[in-house]
Amino acid sequence: MENLLKQILSELHEIKSTMASKQDVEEIKQKLDTIYAQVAHNTEQESKLNDVADKVKDHDTDIKLIKRMLTSQ
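Given the sequence above, the corresponding structure tokens read:
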């Protein structure tokens, strides 16, 4: 019985030594918050970039149309 208790205590100490501390968890939470903020920012930037890409396509079409009009006169 005593050996079993010693074994259990030993295993508990091993588990405790490899467990994350409260500080470790807080650091992970802070990093996760930073990642959330970066993802939100990147999503906003992607939306703006897509809008600019659409405008460039529209401008290219307009330029081609203007060139055709000028060359056909």
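The longest helix spans residues 22-72. Try to locate this feature in the token string yourself.
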